[in-house]
Amino acid sequence: MLPGTEDWTLQAKCRGLEDQLFPDGAAQKQARKICHGCPVRNECLAEALDNRIEWGVWGGMTERERRLLLRQRTDITSWTELLCPPTRTAAAQDGR
Ligand code: SF4
Q1: Number of structural domains, the chain?
Q2: I need a labelling partner for 49 at 20 to 30 A (CA). Which of 16, 22, 73, 89 fits?
């Protein structure tokens, strides 16, 4: 995750651990364990999918998993709308 991109990043479980989220290949499956229990996992995943971020672990998914998801779900035009409805986004920003 890139620090400082959105307010939700302030609640990221990986704050200070960002370097661990960008290993190569299969090591990403191990790295994604950092995301378990992250309160902003949906926001993070939506950010990566909507912006076609190709590197690293975002939202608990490896780059390979995200590419597959994007190929399978070409019908989705906004992952943010799907994964982060306004009430959820507000709650995440309030720390609820
Ligand atoms: S889902 Fe993972 S990569 Fe995204 S903010 Fe949370 S811990 Fe970091």
Answers
A1: 1
A2: 16
